[in-house]
Amino acid sequence: MKNIGFLLPLLIAAAAFGAEAEPSVDELQGLLDVKVVSAASRTQERSDDAPATITVVTADDLRRYGLRSLHEAINFFSLGMVSADPLHAVEVGSRGVLFTSDFGNHMLLLVDGHVMNEQWNGTAYFEQGAGVPIEFIDRIEFIVGPGSVLYGSFAMLGVINVVTKRPRDLGHLQVTAEGSLLPPQGIDGAPQLRWPGFGGTGRISLLTGHETTLAGHPFEFTLAAEYYAHRGQSLTFRTESGLTEGDGERTWAQSWGARAEAGTWGGTTTNSWWTQVPSALLKVRWGDFTLWARGALYARGAPARDAFGPAVNFDGPHTEVDRWANFELRWSKTLSPRLEVMARAYFDLYDYRWRGRSSSWLTYGSGSALPEGADPAQFEFETGLDGNSRWGGLEVQGTWDWLGDGRFPLMVGVDGRLRHFDAASPFSSDGTLFETNGVYAADEWQLAAYAQQRARLHPRLTLNVGARVDMQSAFEPRVSPRAALVWTAPWEGKLKLVFNSAFRTPSGYERLAEFTTYQVKNPALRPESVLTGELGYEQRLGRHRLFAGGFVSSFTDMVTFEAAPEELGADLFWYDNRGALLNLGGHLLAEGSLGQLSYAASFTAAVNKDANFDHAELVASPTWFGNARVSWDFGEGLPRASLVSAFSGPRLITAADATSADADGNEVGWDAASRTIGPQVELRATVDAKVRAVPGLWLRGVVGGCLTPFSAYTAGARLAPDPSLASSTPIQMPNSRLFVMMTVGWSLDGP
């Protein structure tokens, strides 16, 4: 009840503008339930006043529903965003737009406001590879739609901001241990009870924080460390045989390793699917200064690579490793009742290593030189990709309140950055390096200036306008404007009109990578662009919230892989700005609580029109998707039970090649039925409870999995239809059908 005093000015204002009845207890609680966000305007504001459509997931939501990663929070909680797991790097889209194999570079990821997308390829991860312990998260803000006005590149589909806890929310010590078990899956995707073959995950995290006074100034630190490990269950893939014929039998013209039967690709995996993620995050605040540091390593192997790289030997071993070191020193101070200033210096390091083995000379041998007279069949080849990036800069920002009462604050800022990236693709066998392809490096500068004016034009009308100019050594200047108008109805509904824009600079790989006899570089690539208009209405009815909205977006200069001009060479490809999309659709959301029952459901539908009529597969996203959840709290000292689901409609299977040629050279393609996967459904049930006999101890049990056996991603040695087979269909990647998980947590400070 102590917060009611804070609400009195709001209630008096509501009465002055036509509110006739006195607010009920539920209405007051509804106002208290309004989430506060910070990423949309880089300042604290109510989510329903922010210049965007936003979903907020709290720490209690993450624990209550047994969520383990950003990927799961996106699917089970967000409005308008969707993610998909190809058993590799999770892909994220929004509003019916999802770009396959983009490694997250169309979605901006922030942790405590620090940009996590690295500067070589724009990579950001949304599974455990994000490297942020889930118990350390205070809230996650999902901001749907373009967001370059304050952040620059990568924020084309949206912004995800992870806000971590402070010591007052964390306590002196928290320890969490978690484990799960996953049964093996057969060729039809069904779970099986056979040993060996079971997989599982294990996770342990340690969080600590403290607040005190040091040299007369407030001092606090928080530290979170975690180790996550995953060993995938055995998966059985359909065997394929293939490309040549002899003596009436079909065999591959190459071998696919010791784990595959002679002449075939496929079988049962035993050791190729695994993950290890150690990570640590430190925050130290002393007076006006904040030191923020993060380190993480993401090592993994995938059972089949889909469009993420060349075909390699069946069932590994293959290894990918990402490493980060991120640092930021921030100073912020209120110099007067009207002026606040902030300056931050940041420096980030990132590197990537991938190694894959193949017994196939046909796959990797083009352009390489074996020792004279050597038989390729006697060699096992190793291909790789090495990428590095480092960047650092200084940002200065100031906020001036024109009237001193919070109604007309102006924010201006400048951000200057230097970056370096380089890459190479080595090709070797038995430790002998045959050649290094795809070598490039670049040193570039970036300078950006931005401004944002918020204005409360009337007690019921708020305006937010802003723009950002990005100047870069490799590209022409880019201007990203935004405008939002929010009107509060006398019955406390919120009508929001938003115009927004964003861009993405092409990655170093897209601009500069060259491969012998295959790919040439295109340093003249332009940034991708998107313009979006959206209209939404939100109504709160006590502790219930209803939302409906529509949107339309125009994507231009999208980067696609195309045949290069003939003057550059025969049968060569490059990346070019050939894609364009018109995207439109709408959202629906209902959420609230009735006593001890909490509920929510959201639905998004969208359609895409290929504006150039020649890139129908630029977007491979379901045209409708959503989630629903319900939770029951049995009361103080008793468990909570929750059920959550995520669902999505049909979408294209992401085969790398949709066509091939028959013996006469005629183009042959997969039929529409074999290129489409049906609706996907995932369910999860969670029970969590505090153990009253042991202060600070809590337990959680989770059972979940996908009801549908296969995803929209392909596996296999070949990704093109075989014209000699009457029913050539791509091999699909299996979904994870079933898991059981147990979590034990303990806090030194009690409940």
Task: Give an overview of the whole structure.
Helices cover 7% and strands 54% of the residues. It is mainly β. It folds into two domains: 1-29, no CATH class; 33-259 and 272-371 and 388-400 and 409-747, Beta Barrel (Maltoporin, Chain A).
Write the layout of secondary structure elements.
Elements: H1 4-16, H2 25-32, E1 36-37, E2 45-46, E3 53-58, H3 59-64, H4 70-77, E4 81-84, E5 91-94, E6 107-111, E7 114-115, E8 137-144, H5 148-151, E9 158-164, H6 167-170, E10 174-182, E11 199-214, E12 217-231, E13 236-241, E14 244-246, E15 249-251, E16 264-268, E17 274-286, E18 289-301, E19 319-334, E20 339-358, H7 361-364, E21 381-401, E22 409-429, E23 432-458, E24 461-472, E25 475-488, E26 493-504, H8 508-512, E27 528-541, E28 544-563, E29 573-594, E30 597-610, E31 624-633, E32 640-648, E33 651-652, E34 659-661, E35 667-669, E36 676-677, E37 680-690, E38 697-706, E39 710-715, E40 731-734, E41 739-747
Parallel strand pairs: 6-9
Antiparallel strand pairs: 1-2, 3-8, 4-5, 6-7, 8-9, 10-11, 10-41, 11-12, 12-17, 13-16, 14-15, 17-18, 18-19, 19-20, 20-21, 21-22, 22-23, 23-24, 24-25, 25-26, 26-27, 27-28, 28-29, 29-30, 30-31, 31-32, 32-37, 33-36, 34-35, 37-38, 38-41, 39-40
